Amino acid sequence: MISTYARLAERLSAAFSAVSEGADPVLRISEHGDYQANGVMALAKSLGRSPREVAAEVISHLDLADLASVEVAGPGFLNLTLTPGFLGAQLRAMALDERLGVALDSARRVLIDYSAPNVAKEMHVGHLRSTVIGDALARMHRYVGHEVIARNHVGDWGTPFGMLIEHLIDLGEESAVTSLSIGDLDSFYKAARHKFDTDEVFADRARSRVVALQGGDAETRRLWRILVDESVVYFSQVYDLLDVSLTPGDVAGESSYNHLLAGVVDDLTATGLLVESDGALCVFPEGFTNRDGEALPLIVKKSDEGFGYAATDLAALRQRVDELEVDEMLYVVGAPQAQHLEMVFAVARLAGWLPERVHCEHVAFGSVLGTDRKMLRTRAGVSVKLVGLLDEAIERASEALIERHVALDDESRDELSLQIARAAIKWADLSTERQRDYVFDLDRMVSFEGETGPYLQYAHARQRSILRRAGETWSIEAAPFVLAEDAERDLALGLLALPEAVAGALETSHPHRLCTYLFDLAQRFTAFYEACPVLAAPGASRDERLALCELSARTLATGLSLLGIAAPERM
User: Fold this and answer.
1) Per-residue pLDDT tens over the stretch 26-41
2) CA-CA distances (angstroms) from residue 407 to 119, 414, 455, 464, 570?
3) What is the CATH code for 109-153+254-363?
4) Could you tell me which CATH class the domain 453-562 is placed in?
């Protein structure tokens, strides 16, 4: 099934090119017609002619056949209105297509780097956006047929592991594993840090243990592996609670690139890019300066002979291109890391490790704020744990279901409360343009009204309720799709825009574009339901309206699934 948008865009491009080779229209969904084509005024300016005159000439070359009618509006816009026959045919094709018109893309191998917690530390609100945004992008890329390689670049290396291993030894392996396995990672880390800061003998042991770890001592590596494995188990529990698709197999910690770091230094030295600066080995990529206009270094090897984060990031990028042969890399990392990643990408290009064929993008995002519009923290001033956020959201969702007198047994209420809590948290994050900060307000987020995840879930549940009450006395294949009512036509146009919504979210790595579409579709359905009786409609009208309900439910469920949000049948 070729999307409505694609059909119109192809015909418009041909007409614009007939007037002036290389001219390109901009087609978008319009509030005035069904679609609006812009670009006439820019074309007219380049030709030195009147926009309306150029618009008329474009129309003379525009072969829309039975697709749409077209008229010139304003100074030179082209408003296109789909013919009833074509609109009905597109709906019928959509109804019979399990993918709802979303075509499979040419196969690409896309690596998405997201979440990235630290070993022996609990996941907190600072990990939320990377995890949720990255997972939504992974789901969308998989849906259009791309091979997704998820990479969870966990912090599992460095000097803190000396104190952590020594603390594990002091506790005894059995006690330490018990502490870690119940998700009490923060207490374990804080106890180790306290001993390191207050006990000089312990601190000396920790420093020696770091040397042994980095030197490959077998027993030290075994103890280190206990810390890593137990932390990965904990991470997986958090991902399961959030319904995030990351698995232990996606973990590729900093340690996995250790064997590549010396080669990074050697090859940068051989190309003449690596220079010494204040005892450190650095690269100075062009275009990066400090406030005083001085060139900024990317530190590859520190003055103490240790490798910096840049060395690990360069090694990881190089391995992903050379060994994994990726076509695209998305780094879902907070906005404060923008300059660091830009410098890493720039150095990789200079070194020849990042060829033009590989699209590499920093998917930056803002912060999660409290209702006071400051960074979200507990009253004690520490970062809020992710599990705690979800637990509170589950409690609020359960209370909301009780207030709404939803008749459920305890097990069903618990499961539905979890689904609503996930939806509340994910929707609030994903519906916000990712580079903006947003306020984490559970009272608003778990509401069944307004632009919230639970509102979308309820819209889907209401559609399914209508279909259950209709029984099996209708057939979607028999639906005539005459679309005689404005509300029917408006809903149909919204349904047919799903492929463009998915494509737009993927092309820009902005999940909020899909959220905007889904909320608009839910509102269109509400307007349709209020204006057009469904179950009481006569004959063919009933079949048509039930078919629109079915397509709306399928479209909402599909869109929500791409965001990692469940679409309950009953609420």
Assistant:
1) 888 776 668 898 999 9
2) 42, 12, 18, 17, 10
3) 3.40.50.620
4) mainly alpha
